[in-house]
Specification:
The complex is a heterodimer. By secondary structure, chain A is mostly helical. Chain A is 73% helix and 4% strand. Chain A has a two-stranded antiparallel sheet. A two-stranded antiparallel sheet of chain A has the order 3-4. In chain A, strand 1 and strand 2 form a beta hairpin. In chain A, helix 14 (299-319) runs antiparallel to helix 15 (323-351). Chain B has a single domain (6-92), classed as Helix Hairpins, CATH 1.10.287.3510. The relative contact order of chain B is 0.13. The longest helix of chain B is centred in the C-terminal third of the chain and has 31 residues, at 61-91. Chain B contains 3 helices and no strands. Chain B is mainly α. Chain B is 74% helix and 0% strand. Classes of the chains: A mainly alpha, B mainly alpha. Chain B: GO terms for molecular function: NADH dehydrogenase (quinone) (non-electrogenic) activity; quinone binding. Chain B: It is found in: Cell membrane; Membrane. Chain B: It holds the Pfam family Oxidored_q2.
């Protein structure tokens, strides 16, 4: 564990190498990226294994000394960090491998790998940070990586706009995080997680302040994890290449918000209000995004809304004091959502469209992608036996036990929606007749299918590390007797598990009736509630609402400020420049080389002096 | 002789000096400019001589100084004309407007 600091440095090395000689390496740059992330993965696994038997490792050094205050930097390997290291480096490695096939033939292939390296470095650095300041630095770096990768196809207007939108929307959240961080520092005189928790436990911080800082920090998490009301950037971020969506916008970066709340869980758990806020926003986002996902027609957008919804689940779990449930779902979600995205990428790679109305009947043509996509779909729908089932069950139990029956109900309905829209997606893409132009449809190369197979296996088995049936290893290890984090496993009424199963199977059955067997006409629902369908299809008009309110107000202020800038600030500056310029011009005109001119000027100067002399009587004050 | 007041001499010197200054600053021909400079010098000499007679402490020193000034002015005129000759040989002009090499 002493060498855990090396883990983020491998991808950074990859970034630097590809930046310097990527152009010469061309497609061979994939090997640089793959090998270095493999090194990260190996180290992460070693660290994770070591962490099972050893206590938390913390290494720090003084970075800056201001007065008698020492800013430190370093790294910490606790349970959560070790787990996140493993998840991030694994998904990153698989995506690096996958991209070799997906991005094949792209002109900016090495650049893509360089950006992936930068992002992986930032994300790994984020999960190793032992203090808030360092977390914040990497938090922003992660945002930069995301920005670069969303805007990778910068010649597409939509991609450019989406990259800017993602950056600005997350920045809005980051302001909350920054203010919360500064307030915490003001109150506790430290950025260290351990010291902050210690002073909260000692009661050195007032209850109001705890609530305030927790909610401000949660705003940062809202921005990064695409929670309502800052969720709109995440679906737009799908303009980036699909492997990027899998890595950043499904498995790692969007989970950073959840990670932050989990890492600061002792702070949140000290305030009932903060926890309730987290839970409410999470549950609302879960059902809100799931309902939008019901009617979208772009394969990646459906998955994006599903991601938003699942992140809402995690927030709900954390807000209901279900620390283990939240982290557990973070892990399983990373696996099955990355799988779904990679499989979707494989589908897009084969049919060259993202519109599910133009797909159909791909099951026979994509022999490997089809079953893998089905595994992911089953896992996210919460079908018993797969990873998603166990983690979702934990969350529902946490919500119920946390005393939020309304939020529990919302989560249950969202689970129904999830099962429905995921199977709608599956049936529309893989069954029935081919609807669009499908020429040369072929399975993706091995370099792409292999990572999917790995993730497919994990999507099935990852749930078994924490089940009510075979033991809750993950939960016990994560909590490790730490009272604040709650229990390794929450005992809930057994009907919850049955209800969740029935609900998700119902969703699947309904999807099958409509899109599989087609006994119910497809436009039955949209015909019944045409208005509702339009509202859902237009994502509740949130973007339009922002356009009308926030953006127009901001624009107005900006125009006003620009007016001031051009006419007042720039006017003064221009006046000064003009004056000096004129002075210089006159001066240079005098320097024309004519002795007579020099003489005249000298004479005039002398005359002026004599005049002043005469006026003042020889005394100059 | 003594009926002529000092102010008359000074006025003469002033007028001479102004004519010289005007000529030195406005004339195009370099020879005229040189002559104008001589005029200014001589205006100064008149001043010197005037004050040596009508000054606060009249003495012969002022007149001696005027003689020195004339000698130096003669030398200066010789050097100035020599330079002008050299310039004329090079440039084929005595127009002062063309002599602006100080500009570069």
């Amino acid at each position: 564990m002493e060498n855990a600091w090396l883990i983020p440095l491998f991808p950074l090395l990859s970034f630097l190498i590809l930046l310097l000689i990527g152009k010469r390496l061309r497609e061979a740059s994939a090997y640089v990226g793959i090998l270095l992330t493999l090194a990260s993965l190996v180290f992460s696994i070693l660290v994770l294994v070591e962490r099972f038997s050893e206590p938390t490792y913390l290494e720090q050094f003084t970075w800056l000394t201001i007065g008698d205050f020492h800013l430190t930097a370093g790294f910490e390997v606790n349970q959560l960090n070790a787990l996140m290291l493993f998840i991030v480096s694994l998904v990153s490695f698989l995506v690096h491998t996958y991209s070799k096939g997906y991005m094949h033939g792209d002109e900016r292939f090495p650049v893509f790998y360089a950006y992936l390296g930068l992002f992986t470095f930032a994300m790994l650095g984020l999960v190793l940070s032992p203090n808030l300041l360092q977390t914040y630095i990497f938090w922003e770096l992660v945002g930069v990586g995301s920005f670069l990768l969303i805007g990778f196809y910068y010649y597409k207007e939509e991609a450019k706009a989406a990259a800017k939108k993602a950056f600005i929307m997350t920045r809005i959240g980051d302001v909350g995080l920054l203010i919360g961080m500064i307030l915490l520092f003001w109150q506790t005189k430290s950025f260290e997680y351990s010291e902050i928790f210690a002073s909260i436990e000692a009661g050195a911080v007032s209850q109001t302040m705890i609530t305030l800082t927790a909610i401000l920090i949660f705003i940062g998490a809202i921005g990064k994890s695409g929670q309502f009301p800052l969720h709109t950037w995440l679906p737009d971020a799908m303009e980036g290449p699909t492997p990027v969506s899998a890595l950043i916008h499904a498995a790692t970066m969007v989970a950073a918000g959840v990670y932050l709340v989990a890492a600061l869980f002792p702070l949140f758990s000290a305030s009932e209000t903060a926890l309730l806020t987290v839970a409410t926003i999470g549950a609302f986002t879960a059902i809100f995004a799931a309902s939008i996902g019901l009617v979208q027609t772009d394969i990646k957008r459906v998955l994006a809304y599903s991601t938003v919804s699942q992140l809402g689940y995690m927030m709900l779990a954390l807000g209901s004091a279900g620390y283990v449930a939240g982290v557990f779902h973070l892990m399983t979600h990373a696996f099955f959502k990355a799988l779904l995205f990679l499989a979707a990428g494989s589908v897009i790679h084969a049919v060259h469209t993202q519109n599910i109305e133009e797909m159909g009947g791909l099951w026979k043509k994509l022999r490997l992608t089809g079953p893998l996509f089905l595994i992911g779909t089953l896992a996210i729908a919460g079908v018993p036996g797969l990873s998603g089932f166990f983690s979702k069950d934990e969350i529902l139990v946490a919500a119920w036990e946390g005393g939020h029956p309304v939020l529990f109900l919302l989560a249950l309905i969202a689970a129904f929606f999830t099962a429905f829209y995921m199977f709608r997606l599956f049936f529309l893409v893989f069954t029935g007749e081919a609807r669009g132009l499908q020429e040369n449809v072929h399975e993706s190369p091995t370099v792409m299918t292999l990572p999917m197979v790995v993730l497919g296996i994990l999507a099935i088995v990852a749930g078994y590390v924490n089940t009510p049936w075979f033991g809750t290893f993950l939960g016990d290890w994560l909590v490790d007797g730490n009272e604040v984090l709650g229990h390794g496993h929450m005992e809930g009424p057994s009907w919850i598990m049955i209800a969740a199963t029935v609900i998700s199977l119902l969703g699947i059955y309904l999807a099958w009736l409509i899109y599989g067997k087609r006994t119910i006409a497809r436009d039955w629902l949209s015909g019944q509630g045409g208005m509702l369908h339009t509202v859902l299809y237009n994502k509740y008009y949130i973007d339009e609402f922002y356009q009308l309110t926030v953006i127009s107000v901001t624009r107005g202020i900006s125009y006003f400020l620009r007016f001031i800038d051009t006419f007042l600030v720039e006017g003064v500056a221009k006046g000064m420049v003009g004056f000096v310029h004129g002075l210089g011009k006159t001066g240079s005109k005098l320097q024309n080389g004519q002795t007579q001119m020099y003489g005249t000027v000298a004479f005039l100067g002398l005359a002026l002096l004599a005049f002043i002399f005469a006026l003042t009587g020889g005394y100059l004050k | 002789m003594s009926s002529v007041p000092a102010s008359a001499f000074l006025a003469l010197a002033l007028i001479l000096f102004c004519i010289g200054l005007f000529g030195a600053l406005t004339k195009k021909n370099t020879v005229i400019v040189l002559i104008s400079i001589e005029l200014m010098l001589n205006a100064v000499n008149i001043n010197l001589v005037t004050f040596s007679k009508y000054g606060m402490a009249p003495s012969i020193t002022g007149q001696v100084f005027a003689l020195f000034a004339m000698a130096v002015a003669a030398a200066e005129a010789a050097v100035g004309l020599a330079i002008l000759m050299a310039l004329y040989r090079n440039r084929k002009t005595v127009n002062i407007d063309d002599m602006d090499t100080m500009k570069n």
